[in-house]
Write a structure and sequence with these properties.
Blueprint: H1 2-14, E1 21-25, E2 28-32, E3 49-53, E4 61-62, E5 75-77, E6 85-86, E7 100-102, H2 113-117, E8 122-124, E9 130-131, H3 134-142, E10 155-157, H4 168-173, H5 178-221
Parallel strand pairs: 2-3, 3-5, 4-6, 5-7, 7-8, 9-10
Antiparallel strand pairs: 1-2
Domain LRRNT: 15-51
Signal peptide: 1-22
Keywords: Leucine-rich repeat, Membrane, Repeat, Signal, Transmembrane, Transmembrane helix
Amino acid sequence: QAFFCLLLCIPWGSSCPPSCQCTERAGAKAVLCSSRHLEEIPKDIPRDAVFLKLDANSITRIPGNAFRHLSHLEEIDLSRNAIEKIDRAAFKGVAAGLRTLDLSGNRIRSIPKEALLALNAKLRLANNPWHCECALQEVLWEARLDPDSVRDITCHTAPRDEYVGKPLLQVLDAGVNFCSVRQRTTDVAMFVTMFGWFAMVIAYVVCYVRHNREDSCRHRGSPRPLPSAPAHAE
């Protein structure tokens, strides 16, 4: 009987990443990789994992399709790492069933909105050195953020110094719209480009008219040839 139990345990134990502990929580598979000095997301996480804890490691990047084969995941804890970059397709494959995603306490300055807006999960984004911009504003407005951590999303950098150090929610409540600032910048750039093309066209037309006028004056000023004398008949 003990040998039979051992055989049942082998598939689960062998598929567990060597630096992690795999167990069950409320009848669901849990992979615990907290504080294991990991620098990247393990490749051999069991496919039936429901809970994944990768907190307190040294992970710096979440590449595209990092969790694609983990369709049963409901919770991912990536807090207290050194994450700086998140790919647009980082959470592709787990968007439907994911309930909680914790990215707090990292080094994230900006994040592609496509990576988060496709999720239905409750997000924790606090305590990161955020650069307040349109993409972050859209995430705040459209994503499901954990209400307990929203006020800890602070502007580490911003287009204007007066916003630095303030919670993003407070800045937006004051009427600031980073997306409209970007739109105005785009409009100005388009206006400058169109004005440049228009000025080039005008300059070309002026040069063309002036050149034709000079040619006309040159032809008028040149002496006409004298008519030749008629030949006398002999």
